[in-house]
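Treating backbone geometry as a discrete language has practical consequences that deserve illustration. No coordinates are needed to read the tokens, only the vocabulary itself. For completeness, the protein is quoted in full, as a sequence line and a line of structure tokens:
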Amino acid sequence: MPRPSARRALPVALLSALALAVPAAASAAPEPGFETLTPACVPAPPVQHPGCGTAYRGAPLPSGTPDQVVELSGADRFATAAAIAEHGFPEADVAVLVSGEDRHLVDALSAAPLARSLAAPLLLATRDDVPAATAAYLRDHAVRSVVVVGGDDALSALTPKRLQTLGVTDVQRIAGADRYATSRAVAAFLPAATHGWAASGEDAHLVDALAAAGPAARLGEPLVLVADDDPIPAGDALRALGVTTTTVAGGPEGVFPEALAPLPTPHRAAGEDRYGTAAAVAVEAVDAGLPAEDVVLAPGLTGHLVDALASGPLGRATLLVGEDQSSFDVVEAWFDTYGAGRVTAVGAVSISG
């Protein structure tokens, strides 16, 4: 497709202030209007959902003025996820709980579309604890139903009991024999869709799935992980949901060329590196209807990817920020092309002027 004409560039002062940091928690100024979130209750949710057929208030809508900046962060990854939850899901009755430990992030990569379909945030825990920020969100919102994604090695068998002490009465776990089976099990709870997303499940390429999570969530489409040595189950899972076309996030070093054939009419969204791939995925999302001027900036460095994970249910096009110039070039090119309406920086990404 032809490149859209440039409309408005991000101010140089704002772009030059973009950095990876550990900012203090911040909140956006009040904005008129909010998203409306309606739980998808067909197929039946994995937990009892008291809000089937109910409209929930979601995130504030952009005010319409250019160059808005919203920073969502906390003292640690768990508090950052809770801050994102407060922003995007202030009225949630249901939550999705995933591991916030780096070695288990892969189990949660496909959870963003499910969370948004339930009008639910994505909260983080450790294998053996429900951190204070997560517990506070669950208590403050009187959440009674929680979907746990991942096996006992990610979130232990005692997790439901820990949640019950917080007032949660309905806990259901979605897990498969491995990361790929878990992603397919999560996708099975999503409504039918004609388009789906696929990405590598290899540790070195998890960032590609993170870039696709926000668009998949907003569009109500499944995101499954593809095993290069056994891609047929991923294709079968997508077809079972009615998928006829698939966007594969990432290049051939992530999902091998020979692994594409079992997927429904696949095509790639990929760049020269993880930052270019995130931008390519974001372009696909904009072409599918997501607003180009309302984007998330999330950390793209290993060790900070969890912040991008928590922001997936917001359902926004996502650009990744690193420490090298290539990531800043991608961000600058995006705003040169599409302009800057609202920029939401999450976790270790800070924008300060």
